[in-house]
Write a structure and sequence with these properties.
With 1450 residues, this protein is an alpha+beta fold. It has 43 helices and 45 strands. It comes from Lithohypha guttulata. Belongs to the WD repeat RAPTOR family.
């Protein structure tokens, strides 16, 4: 266990835990469904978006010795946790680490013999260090293979907590019916004039006669028959809507018609009215659209114009025309509306205040076209259109029986076919038919109508929806009778839809059972109704759709049916599970479900007591809240949020295996419910919720639950003092600070978010101040966090804290300026006022002074966004200081600092030239120049940077401390360099005798963009304001908008990513197979054949080959990285690492080489950066950046930063000018180990066993080589120390493959081979051709300053050392422009002198450099960098003073 509480990840047992996601694992069709059948874990990362690794076995990746072929898709969970859960004594269990993208597992049996053959071949080589048995163990290799992961591929590395572009689309309220209406009144105008046929209508004999299922020719008398027909028609409409007020108007006169129409509109106000017109007893509508009624005495037919009817009814209105030639009315309707609108415009011009009548939003349903007559089939009703609209089941049964060519067990009579049951009882035959009919017509409309038209006609008004559902049936039946019903708005044809066949099948099933059902009703027999399997089949069809690659362009046909199925308890669970799978497809699916009308159902189901529904309801609500959190008021109804509060409790019972994942969803729902909703915060302020959050924060296996428990408390506390006091009473803030070293960065960031909102209790008592100071003290530990996401949230926390204690931080800032002035060597007093100080130091040894120091350090953070935000905080405090009563004091201090800075700059400018400055430095290596000798701490340099900005602030200009660069591609010099990194002494950046920086400028190449940070649109003139706003909650919400139940694209066979993986796997295997036989030949070759010659343009100092891509990364002596395709000799990209002047790139290594690689770059000032798309020019992005070494020790002999990357362990070993070796975990982005370096000398080189990753070796500047074992306690981790080297260790390297040779080389030319079990070197080689033993000294008497023996013979200096990863060869570069190649038996193979543009040059005392050797008065450029390709037999060589790279083959 390390100091910070993190585990080293080496001991204990490994657990594969799947954090918070869910997946449906298949289905059954027997109707027996449980939530546990569907909700099991498959995918695990709370922040997905990680790439998938390649498919070689672990030994393929690192040794190239064995060949194993794997399926590109793993069979089980594809993202287990990377770190084991460990125990230290009987201590508490630590939270699990973050889920990682992992490689595939499972070798195929078809090549088992090949594996055994390779294993036998490798066993004969006898690995060094006693690793034969370990590496031959199948259990060992299987364990390594199962825990091989990819790193820096999580979602946080794509955008660093910044919302995606799609986030601006949410919340979207398009699905809500803002203009929901209801039909409040209806006029049923029935013009039959029984016994008198209209003059222009000729009836057939026999003819249709039923009106409202009543025979008007019955012997009841004319008036009684009309009353019965009117009553029946009203009952039929009431079956559609009981809330509408109906009024019958039987054979109305013109006066009555006007009166009831005007009254109808007056009573309805702005709601919709219905006007039903049956004109079977009056003349046909005229060509101009006039319909007919009677005079008072019923002696004349009186026309009613459309214009007049519109004037009386106005809008919104619903018209139903059951009359022949009804199309005449509909086709003239819009013309009259336009006339009304014109009249309104004229009225508005005459009187702007006049009341304007609304004539819009009129819906019409007409029985036929303009010249069509209604059907007269005697087997059908005369008002067939009305029957279809009001009694669809009865007319559909009659029509089915009439059209059925087979024998039917029932006969058609003049009345309805008596189907048992009630319409409202879905378990009865009649109710089930009505249920199926509703589902089918809704589905047909959903599939055919445009979305906006469907919403208007089928979701806005219950009466309109019912009539239009039935209108689809009318269109089908009446078209078969040569009649074409029409509507306004016009609908597409629907009568040929395939679902009508399902309707016919449902009718047939009922018809076939009718005789038994009728007998059962008469108590003649016992018969149980056989229910239709329509809904079960449609759910199966929906499931097939979900399993067939659903896309937004291909919406499901069955979604309205799923909605209807929710009404049934029999199919409800299965429907909800399928619905959850659909919602998991993304926001587009959620919008579709909401627009279809799913929301009222899921709100109502919150009142259901069924425990089996809880998991699926939580899942559905999480997806809905992620898309539209404005449903808070709906969730408030009937206290629906309590449903999720109860489930969130760890003691609640959820019938699902991954209960913690569903509790995390509940925490998300509650947090979103409280977002910007004070009423929701009040409802949620319960001890049950807060205790649940605190207990869930201790959940060790689910980081998503810990994350959202923090965010839930955060949103509960936001601007709500009562909740903060409740948190104080139970110590919630103290429990949050326990998460400072949580292994998941998202959890740590969420903890910062919660504590930020915790600040600000209105009553700032001593108790509150003490609590907040304690929180701030704990937050200081996060300054050195490796995650940019965490540091970003930390800056936001400091912005809130400094805003709250503004005056104290103004004092701290001023005292920091005074301290800086006192530390400055040229800080003279400009006048009396500048010397005024505050009595004593108020901020020293307080959390305020420490916090101010930390925010200054964060303002020069290597991550651009973090630095930009922190600079805004610093600028704000400085701005406040300059507007406070302390302004005069502060300005005088600033003036002194500026004058001192100018003097320092002037003293440097007095040096005649860069070359002479170099000479001055090299002539006195132990004494730095005076201007560089002062204590340039990070803190003091930060003060200088911010102090220089104060002058601009006073002048009213923009703050120069805000690190907002302009477009670096067009103006790369805009990068800020006046930072601690930019002010480091030059000797900090290179070891003794290293290349001096060439004359030139930094930042010549474009800067890569920082992932998630967009500087465009930033207003530099705008003064900063505090507190800063966090986007963490919105960014975290995006997780619930992403699919979780299905594999990512790389795991989907046939996808582009999947095919690319297959191609990469084949290519990687081919490269390994092609190069493995060449190892033996390489050990006996001369290595002098020039393969290629690359002009890099700048001086190369570090080179790295990619294992499989033809990429060669070249870093120059400043900050430029160039990526070459060495096969085509073409430059792929070139970008700046952003190094401050005076620093250099220490090294570059590849990560995740098997799949989509990343580039890890280290700088001599202790900063590590990770780049994605490094070979794609403008697409290169900085994934993350952090300061791995923040306590560099000044020295005239230094190594800067040296590091080694362990892909298998996911660790970065960092060392350099530091007393410790830091171990950074790439998964947790934390420093998980501080191993004492056991010397005062700097670490010059690091290497490690890349397979198991537990052993690493360090070379030192004093010649020591030490071996460490990470499995041991850090204090006792050093297991071996070798003191055989006498000089600076140039390099130490352990092979990935081969026999795992461990080799080291020192500057005097000694190369030694080691075995960690032995106390002495296995072999010593004089690699540079000088003396083999003795002591050496540096001489200032010689112009080159090189190493000399006692006989004053110059010893060639070893400048570089490279070892092939698999072949038994190594190469050294000397200062005599030679590359010497050896095999591991100590045999010299050849000497190669690379081509150069200037191999020889005249040596002068002022130009003499340690980068060259002087021979005969001439200087030969030294070899400054060598690098082997990991698999190919290829060596890259670069010499000093030249920008070329030579590629050498064996």
């Amino acid at each position: 266990m390390t100091r910070n509480g993190m585990v080293n990840g080496d001991g204990g047992s490994r657990h594969e835990v799947n954090p918070a996601t869910t997946r449906v694992n298949g289905h059954t069709t027997n109707g027996n469904y449980s939530s546990e059948d569907y909700f099991t874990r498959t995918k695990t990362s709370p922040q997905r978006n990680g790439t998938r690794p390649g498919d070689l076995s672990l030994t393929d990746r690192y040794t190239g010795e064995r060949f194993r072929y794997f399926s590109p898709v793993s069979g089980g969970a594809d993202r287990p946790l990377i770190h084991p859960t460990e125990y230290e004594g009987n201590g508490p269990r630590r939270p699990s680490g973050p889920p990682r993208t992992r490689s595939d597992a499972g070798p195929q049996d078809r090549i088992g013999a090949r594996v055994e053959q390779e294993h036998d071949s490798q066993s004969q080589m006898h690995l060094r260090h006693g690793w034969d048995n370990d590496y031959a163990s199948s259990e060992f290799l299987a364990n390594l293979q199962a825990n091989f992961y990819m790193y820096y591929t999580d979602k946080r590395h794509d955008n660093n907590g910044t919302q995606s572009n799609e986030a601006s689309l949410y919340p979207s309220k398009d699905w809500r019916m803002k203009d929901r209406m209801k039909t409040v009144s209806a006029a049923l105008a029935i013009c039959l004039n029984i016994g008198v046929d209209p003059p222009d209508v000729i009836k057939t004999n026999p003819t249709a006669k039923l009106e409202a299922w009543t025979d008007p020719t019955a012997n009841l008398g004319g008036s009684k028959v009309m009353e019965q027909i009117g009553k029946r028609l009203q009952e039929q409409y009431e079956s559609l809507s009981l809330r509408t007020r109906y009024k019958q108007y039987l054979d109305p006169s013109i006066e009555e018609t006007k009166r009831f129409c005007v009254s109808l509109r007056k009573n309805a106000k702005d709601e919709r009215v219905l006007f039903h017109y049956n004109g079977h007893g009056v003349p046909l509508p005229t060509a101009s659209g006039e319909l007919w009624v009677f005079n008072k005495n019923y002696t004349q037919y009186i026309p009613v114009g459309i214009y007049d009817l519109q004037s009386w009814l106005a809008g919104p209105s619903l018209y139903v025309y059951d009359v022949s030639h009804a199309g005449n009315i509909l086709h003239n309707f819009d013309t009259m509306i336009e006339k009304h609108q014109k009249d309104n415009d004229e009225l508005r011009e005459r009187d702007p205040n006049a009341l304007i009548q609304n004539y819009g939003d009129c819906i019409q349903l007409a029985a036929c076209e303009r010249n069509e007559m209604l059907p007269t089939n005697p087997d059908l009703p005369a008002d067939l259109f009305t029957c279809c609209l009001t009694t669809p089941i009865d007319i559909a049964l009659r029509w089915f029986v009439l059209q059925n060519p087979l024998d039917c067990p029932i006969t058609v009579e003049d009345t309805k076919i008596p189907v048992p049951g009630r319409l409202q009882d879905r378990r009865s035959p009649l109710g089930e038919l009505n249920w199926i009919f509703t589902a089918i017509t809704d589905t047909i409309a959903w599939n055919i109508l445009p979305r906006h038209l469907f919403k208007k006609l089928f979701r806005q008004d219950l009466m309109v929806a019912a009539l239009f559902r039935n209108f689809l049936l009318a269109e089908r039946i009446m078209r078969a009778n040569h009649c074409h019903p029409i509507s306004s708005p016009k609908l597409p044809e629907t009568h040929r839809h395939a679902l009508w066949q399902s309707w016919d099948l449902a009718l047939e099933m009922v018809v076939r059972q009718m005789p038994m059902l009728i007998k059962h009703e008469r108590n003649e027999i016992q018969y149980e109704y056989q229910h239709s399997d329509f809904f079960a089949q449609q759910l199966t069809a929906f499931e097939v759709y979900l399993n067939s690659g659903p896309t937004e362009e291909r919406a499901p046909d069955q979604l309205p049916i799923v909605l209807q199925v929710l009404l049934s308890q029999v199919h409800r669970l299965r429907a909800l599970i399928l619905l959850s799978k659909f919602l998991d497809l993304g926001p587009w699916a959620v919008h579709l479900a909401l627009s279809i009308g799913i929301f009222p159902y899921v709100v109502k189901l919150l009142q259901a007591a069924s425990i089996e529904l809880k998991p699926v309801m939580v899942f559905i609500w999480a997806r809905i809240m992620a898309v539209d959190y404005t449903v808070q008021s709906d969730l408030m109804k009937d206290n629906g949020v309590q449903y999720f509060i109860s489930i969130m409790s760890p003691n609640s019972d959820i019938p699902v295996g991954n209960a913690s994942e569903h509790r995390a969803m509940c925490a998300f729902i509650i947090a979103t419910f409280c977002k910007n909703y004070p009423h929701g915060q009040t409802v949620c302020l319960t001890s049950e919720l807060m205790n649940s959050c605190i207990m869930n924060m201790a959940e060790p296996e689910n980081p998503l639950l810990r994350q959202w428990s923090c965010l839930c408390l955060s949103m509960l506390w936001h601007d709500y003092s009562e909740a903060k006091w409740a948190g104080i009473r139970i110590g919630a803030h103290m429990r949050l600070t326990d998460l400072v070293f949580d292994p998941v960065p998202e959890v740590r960031a969420s903890m910062c978010h919660a504590l930020t909102n915790f600040l600000g209790v209105p009553d700032l008592t001593d108790q509150i101040e003490q609590i907040e100071e304690g929180i701030a003290h704990e937050m200081l530990l996060l300054t050195n966090d490796g995650s940019a996401l965490v540091r970003k949230e930390l800056v936001i926390f400091w912005s809130a804290f400094m805003k709250r204690y503004e005056n104290k931080f103004v004092i701290a800032a001023y005292e920091q300026l005074l301290e800086e002035k006192d530390r400055h060597p040229d800080s003279g007093l400009s006048d009396g006022l500048s010397g005024v100080t505050i009595a004593g130091s108020y901020s020293a040894n307080t959390v305020y002074g420490s916090a101010w120091s930390h925010i200054l350090m964060l303002s020069v953070d290597p991550h651009q966004e973090v630095a930009w935000l922190a600079s805004a905080v610093v600028d704000y405090i400085h701005d406040v200081m300059l507007t406070s009563p302390m302004a005069d004091l502060a300005l005088h201090v600033v003036n002194d600092l500026l004058k001192s800075s100018k003097k320092s700059a002037a003293s440097i400018k007095k040096v005649p030239s860069v070359e002479s400055l170099k000479s001055a430095v090299s002539s006195r290596p132990s004494t730095p120049p005076a201007e560089l000798r002062k204590n340039e701490s990070y803190l003091s340099l930060s003060i200088k940077r911010t102090a220089s900005s104060l002058r601009t602030l006073v002048g009213g200009g923009p703050s120069q401390t805000t690190l907002v660069e302009k477009d670096t591609s067009s103006n790369p010099k805009q990068y800020p360099v006046n930072t601690p990194r930019g002010r480091l002494p030059a000797e900090w950046s290179r070891p003794p005798d290293s290349m001096q920086p060439q004359i030139g400028h930094y930042h010549q190449a474009p800067f890569p963009k920082t992932a998630g940070f967009n500087r465009k649109g930033v207003d530099l003139e705008q003064q900063p304001s505090l507190p800063l706003e966090s986007t963490l909650l919105q960014w975290s919400t995006e997780y619930f908008r992403e699919p979780q139940m299905r594999p990512n694209d790389p795991d989907e066979p046939g996808s582009a990513d999947y095919n690319q993986r297959l191609w990469r796997r084949t290519r990687n295997e081919r490269i390994i197979a092609d190069n493995q036989p060449l190892k033996s030949r390489a050990a006996s070759s001369k290595w002098t054949r020039l393969e290629a010659f690359i002009n890099n343009g700048t001086q190369p100092t570090r080179m790295t080959f990619h294992q499989f891509d033809s990429h060669l990364v070249v870093a120059d002596d400043k900050d430029t990285i160039t990526v070459w395709d060495f096969q085509s000799n073409s430059q792929l990209s070139r970008f700046s690492n952003g190094n401050p002047e005076g620093t250099r790139i220490s090294d570059a290594k590849f990560m995740n080489e098997d799949d989509q690689p990343l580039l890890l770059v280290g700088s001599s000032d202790g900063v590590l950066k990770v780049y994605r798309n490094y070979a794609n020019g403008n697409e290169t992005k900085c994934v993350t950046a952090f300061r791995a070494l923040n306590e560099l020790i000044p020295s005239t002999k230094n190594a800067g930063l040296v590091f080694d990357w362990q892909q298998g362990q996911g660790k970065i070993l960092t060392a350099g000018d530091l007393r410790t070796i830091k171990v950074w975990n790439a998964a947790t982005e934390l420093c998980v180990g501080d191993i004492p370096a056991r010397t005062s000398s700097c670490v010059t080189s690091l290497t490690s066993d890349q397979l198991a990753g537990q052993i690493f070796v360090a070379g030192y500047g004093d010649g020591m080589v030490r071996v460490f074992d990470q499995r041991l306690n850090p204090r006792t981790a050093m297991v071996k120390a070798w003191r055989e080297h006498q000089q600076w260790v140039t390099g130490v390297h352990m092979q990935r493959g081969g026999v795992r040779e461990l080799i080291s080389g020192s500057r005097n030319g000694e190369v030694k081979l080691w075995d960690i079990r032995l106390d002495d070197a296995i072999m010593s080689i004089n690699a540079t051709g000088g003396a083999t033993a003795g002591t050496y000294h540096r001489s200032s008497q010689h112009p080159d300053g090189g190493y000399y023996d006692h006989a004053h013979s110059r010893v060639p200096t070893l400048r570089s050392l490279s070892l092939h990863e698999h072949a038994p060869v190594f190469a050294v570069g000397t200062d005599q422009h030679q590359v010497r190649t050896f095999n591991t038996n100590g045999d010299a193979q050849g000497i190669f002198e690379p081509l150069s543009s200037g191999v020889w040059s005249k040596a002068t005392s002022s130009a003499a450099s340690a980068a060259s050797a002087v021979v005969g008065g001439y200087r030969r450029n030294a070899i400054v960098a060598t690098a082997y390709h990991p698999h190919k037999m290829l060596l890259a060589v670069a010499s000093g003073g030249d920008g070329h790279v030579s590629l050498v083959g064996y």
